[in-house]
Amino acid sequence: MSREIFLSQNNYLNGLKCLKYAWHYKHCRNAMPAYPEATERVFNYGHMIGAKARELYPDGILACDADRPFGEQLAYCRELLKKRLPLFECGLIFNNAYAQSDILVPVGDNRWEFIEVKSGRGIAEINYHDVAFQRYVYVNAGLDIVRCHIMHVTPGSEAGYGCNPKDIFTMENVTDSLAEYSMIVEARVKEIRDVLAMGEAPVIPPGRQCSSPYRCKMYDICNALTNEG
Ligand code: SF4
Question: Which of the chain's termini has less CB crowding within 10 Å, N or C?
């Protein structure tokens, strides 16, 4: 049996957004246009919020190191699990599908819960898909996941570099809301992999997905093609 095409969390979420975007991200990411400056600022804010969330777990360990070869990274994360400490960005793989949760927290002797950190002030539907995919990979990779959470910025709070992280987050247990998202993970994984295995990008007409939740990198290209047509 041939090996399944590698599918990261980003590949999965990209595929849910737009299969054409997912294909380009997988095969020619470096040739894609850069995000506009305003979008980059949103991403930088998200990184700051992620760092603030980690401050809530002072004994946590950052598991991910972008300079470490991928195989070694997977082995390192497996080793870290034995420490039974909070882990940030602990990457696990199942059937060549890869997930890396923001914060993985030990529960009791051998169980875990994980937290997806969001810089928004509420939960968007794509966040449930994200958590469902992470749980799918983690559970199939052998972790006993008892709870899944989304931690977002509390509306009205002042989240900034100097803030106290204890003042800005709301944590919501979404475990019981995942059923409808979890039940489609396998089918969507297969669908996205089938597209990623194609020799060229699928034809997808521009639509709402191009500007929501943020403007796609390919927006000008796809819309120019449509206008030419
Ligand atoms: S601009 Fe729209 S159609 Fe084109 S890749 Fe992005 S989301 Fe897909």
Answer: N
Specify whether the CB–CB gap between 9 and 98 falls below 8 A.
Answer: yes
Taking the centre of ligand 1 as the mean of its atom positions, its distance from the CA of residue 37, in whole angstroms, is 19
pLDDT band at residue 2, thresholds of 50, 70 and 90? Answer: low
The phi and psi torsions of 39 (rounded to 5 degrees) equal -70, -40
Which pLDDT tens digit goes with each residue over 18-46? Answer: 999 999 999 999 989 888 888 889 889 99
State which H helix or E strand residue 62 sits in.
strand 61-62
Sequence-ordered strand ranges (E) for 108-201: 111-118, 145-153, 169-173
- 107 Cβ partners below 8 Å, 6+ apart? 113, 146, 147
Distance between CA 22 and CA 26 in Å, rounded?
A: 6
Asked if residue 209 has its Cβ within 6 Å of ligand 1, the reply is yes
